[in-house]
Amino acid sequence: MKNFTTLLIASMLGTIAFAQTTPLAAVANPPSSVAVSATSAKDMAEAEVRKVDKDAKKVTLKHGPIKNLDMPGMTMVFQVRDAALFDKLVVGEKILFTAEQLQGAFVITGAEKTGAK
Q1: CA 72 → CA 32, 56, 76, distances in Å?
Q2: pLDDT tens-place string over residues 41-98
Q3: What is the mean predicted confidence (pLDDT) over 32-39?
Q4: Quick check: 112 and 93 in contact, CB under 8 A?
Q5: CA 62 to CA 51: how far, in whole Å?
């Protein structure tokens, strides 16, 4: 019991020290580098763009495994809800992308060109 009490007090002192040395604004609004590292930590899948259909808001990708969807590599059609992503989706180019299953459909949520063709 004595060890538990000592540990509890040490933990509380560490929390108090953090609160005294860290401005509240920094805790509530972390620097953008924190947000970027969280985004880059997402698993991105590799793909080759096979077909782009802006009118139907769809793209066909030959992709590698998509870890967050537990999906093996294959060629398939994804929805594109953010029209700005079409600037990064050029037939024949290699991309890194993120996707989610939203309302039963597979949707690309982010993409970046790798520079390879």
Answers
A1: 33, 25, 11
A2: 457 999 999 999 999 999 999 999 999 999 999 999 999 999 999 999 999 999 999 9
A3: 37
A4: no
A5: 10
Residue 45's DSSP bridge partners are: 97
pLDDT of residue 33: 37
Taking only Cα atoms into account, the Rg of the chain, rounded to an integer number of angstroms, comes to 22
* Gap between the terminal Cα atoms of the chain: 64
Beta bridge partners of 48: 62, 94
Three-state secondary-structure class, residue 98: strand
80 touches 58 (CB < 8 A): yes
Q: Is the pTM of this model over 0.70?
A: no
Alpha-helical regions (H) of the chain: 2-21, 24-28, 32-40
| Local structure of residue 108 (DSSP, 8 states) | E
Range 21-27 average pLDDT: 49
User: Cα torsion at 70, 76, 79, 85 (round to 10°)?
Assistant: 90
